[in-house]
Task: structure prediction
Amino acid sequence: MPPTSVSPPRTAPGPANPSPAHPSRVRVIHPGGGKPGGPVVYWMLRDQRLADNWALLHAAGLAAASASPLAVAFALFPRPFLLSARRRQLGFLLRGLRRLAADAAARHLPFFLFTGGPAEIPALVRRLGASTLVADFSPLRPVREALDAVVGDLRREAPGVAVHQVDAHNVVPVWTASAKMEYSAKTFRGKVSKVMDEYLVEFPELPAVVPWDREQPEGVDWDALIARVCSEAENVPEIDWCEPGEEAAIEALLGSKDGFLTKRIKSYETDRNDPTKPRALSGLSPYLHFGHISAQRCALEAKKCRHLSPKSVDAFLEELVVRRELADNFCYYQPQYDSLSGAWEWARKTLMDHAADKREHIYT
Result:
């Protein structure tokens, strides 16, 4: 991916647009009627962090503009979607949320955790008398169906509540990057490169909001919750060398001991596809997947050290932005994203043509 500059934060939000997020990053799913003074609720989905989170920044901007309090809510998906994950993924998810809840408490930001699924979100919104529900974005079918159900509930039972969705996961919002399913990385790369300077900007500080004075979150027995959820999942054991959470994610990116950009970036361009050289990889995948770190933050920091290893940084940005966000493009525009019938014809043909190829190495 060609070099691009890093822009300063966008102009401070004003009365006409109180959100710090780029306007095209936000979609109004339901305009509502607006309840002056009602709290803003951020429904956290796959961007499980407090720092560098455009969805949280948008929610806080709305709350600050209306002198309203702000809350964060997270709902564990029920079976089968949640438990299609293994113990390793679920443990990482829940231990990361445990750290996030502690960080939120330190900021006097209420964090509501629900174990009964997304259906609990509209009930919370109604109890709190919220004015706006802000959700982050996922292209996956179960999440989109859950959002549709929540919006449908609010339209029936609380039509005055506005619902916004913010793509806080991609550097370039998925609906802005392209209006269609892209044929290849080549076609997608050209579109993303043209607008990269507009979106690859520094994050502003989280706007200050009024203190929370509503219903308090129930206490969570994290040890019991983690034990219960993991016991119901398939037994792929957790690992102890990959710590979850925002702090661990930043350490993996920028740590003085073994950070990817500080210690290992130089070999990325030549060795990242060699399975015998795992240290050439970034090690950021679990943190990006669960939203413990922003891809935009990774890109911003990579740009700062490009002069030290231009080819490796460019290769990293290609994987981080183009290839990774192309996957979101595919899932967003292809309803059959989880079936071979949804793949491009050239992809299916390639698989068939090489199905009988002898492999030098076979991995399990």
Summary: The two ends are 32 Å apart (CA to CA).
